[in-house]
Amino acid sequence: MRRLHTKFCWLTALLLASSAVAVFAQGTMGIITQADAALQAGEADKAISLLNTLPQAGRSIAEAQNLQCRVRFTLRQWDAAAQACEQALRLDGQNSNYHLWMGRALGEKAGRASFLSAFSLGKRVRMEFEEAARLNPRNAEALSDLGEFYKEAPGVVGGGLSKAESVAAELERVDAARAHQLRARIAEERKDYGTAEREYKDAIATSPHPAFHWTTLASFYRRRERWTDLDGAIHNCLSAAARDRRAGVALYDGAGILIESRRDPALAARMLEDYLAGQSKTEEAPAFEAHLRLARLKEQLGDGAGAQRERAAAFAMAHEYKPAQDARN
Question: By three-state DSSP, how is residue 71 classified?
Answer without folding.
Answer: helix
